[in-house]
Amino acid sequence: MSRRLAIGIDIGGTKVAGGVVDESGAITHRTRRDTPHRSTSPAVVENTIVESVEELLSQVDPEDVVAVGIGAAGFVAEDRATVVFAPHLSWRNEPLRDALSQRIALPITVDNDANAAAWAEATFGAARGESHVVVITLGTGIGGALIIDGNVQRGRHGIAGEFGHMQIMPGGARCECGNRGCWEQYASGNALVREARAMIEAGSPVVADLLARLGGDASALTGPFITEAAREGDPTARELLADIGEWLGIGLANLASAFDPGLFVIGGGVSAADEMLIGPAREAFRRQLPGRGYRPEARIVRAVLGSDAGLIGAAELARAGR
Hints:
Blueprint: E1 5-11, E2 15-21, E3 27-34, H1 42-57, E4 65-72, E5 75-76, E6 83-85, E7 92-94, H2 96-101, E8 108-112, H3 113-124, E9 132-138, E10 142-148, E11 151-152, H4 189-201, H5 208-213, H6 223-231, H7 235-259, E12 263-267, H8 275-288, E13 299-302, H9 309-320
Parallel strand pairs: 1-4, 4-8, 9-12, 12-13
Antiparallel strand pairs: 1-2, 2-3, 5-6, 6-7, 9-10, 10-11
């Protein structure tokens, strides 16, 4: 019997992850490549996608694959074909689906990567059974998605859910989107690393142990490194994660005012810090929630599908024609 497999491709700021996904949400085959630098032409990114799809098709019976889903880190238009703007990539009004359709002989769906991750969590993960969900993905930046009554809410122009670009600090840090003070400048992986490096550059003695772990090379600092140091008890790393968590909770309180969800799901690479991040986020959320004490409070949980959520969701959206 033929299987209804789908291929999901998740394009982030640093990696292009691909997988063959079956109808239960399981990944049967994988591939991974570095994301081409944003200064390169859109064709280079398209080549990377095509190479990933071709590699995956070579590992299964191509007749079993019914669709390809692309989760792109950027603004995807309502036509589900055009990447309007990608802060971390070179796409500007890029007709991605049409370009890929000339090279891939399968139905192709393009969506925002956070929408894809949210769909995976709603279908197979932490948000199953919840009617009103906001999913936040913390990685290089912040992505977001809203699901209501089993439907991804994409907005009139397809660009809903770009919560990372809410302004929470007027005149604050410059964001790659062109504005200042965006949420992702304070509650993302980039923000975590930036704050740690600022402490090192300032010569703060409290960061001495963290710097020693790096062998004195501050350029080697990464978000996963800080998370691992925090797990091992480094107090500065824990403090940095708590600060990011506080900013996360403030933003979630704003979103609760706008959408009144029953559940927030926190995913993306930074969520690997788990309660070191989400605990402070819950505390800040409760402090900032309007009408606190007199209204139902949304739960805040960690995503369960991890870094696979984007490609699983992209594949499932394509398979289901959603």
